[in-house]
Specification:
The protein has 191 residues and is mainly alpha-helical. It is 76% helix and 0% strand. The protein has nine helices and no strands. The chain is elongated. The N and C termini lie far apart (60 Å). The model has no long low-confidence stretch (mean pLDDT 90).
């Protein structure tokens, strides 16, 4: 698996071929398939390692608002490990296939890092609503980072992209706080 991880980190997902993995690992092509059911499973295992590194990067403490710190850490990870980061989100299983439970568990640990600060902003929300909001926020931040790193947002290189993320996440968090306050006020008014 280390050989596949190195190939993805160097060439991206498009550069991953079973024959190259076997050559880099110093084994026969068939040996890969004694360990992994197919190339898809190998890619998922490598992507799970990337998720683990991403989770560790996001779990680092930082100064400022927790959600903004997470967003900036996400951007830093994407910049530092761009081919592996892109492989994580660029890989698609064949139609009709679904992610294995072990991979879903790994992915959901990443979302849980957002759920904690969001639950503080949304104390009256059910856990499933907080989980859905975490996924929405993650998707938005991922979109900004992805488009920003591809220079599709205009002048978003360097500090500009960081400022855009901070502004977006700050606005998102303030909006949630205001909406939660309004719901509490409305509930008190109805009592």
């Amino acid at each position: 698996m280390g050989a596949a991880q190195t190939l993805i980190a160097d060439k991206g997902l498009a550069g991953l071929k079973a024959r190259e993995v076997a050559q880099a690992a110093g084994c026969a092509l068939g040996a890969i398939y004694t360990v992994f059911a197919d190339l898809d499973e190998l890619i998922l295992r490598v992507n799970a390692r990337t998720l683990t590194r991403l989770e560790a990067a996001l779990a680092q403490e930082g100064d400022g608002d927790a959600l903004e710190v997470l967003a900036l850490a996400y951007l830093a990870f994407a910049r530092r490990e761009e081919p592996s980061w892109r492989a994580l989100f660029g890989f698609r299983l064949p139609p009709g296939s679904s992610l294995p439970d072990w991979f879903v568990t790994e992915r959901d640990r990443l979302f849980a890092l957002l759920e904690s600060p969001l639950s503080e902003l949304l104390p009256d929300h059910a856990p499933e609503d907080v989980r859905r909001t975490a996924r929405t926020l993650f998707s938005a931040v991922h979109g900004i980072v992805s488009l920003g790193l591809e220079d599709k947002l205009g002048d978003s290189a360097g500090v500009m992209l960081e400022a855009e993320l901070e502004a977006f996440v700050g606005t998102f968090a303030r909006g949630l706080a205001v909406a939660a306050r309004k719901r509490r006020q409305d509930a008190r008014a109805r009592e």
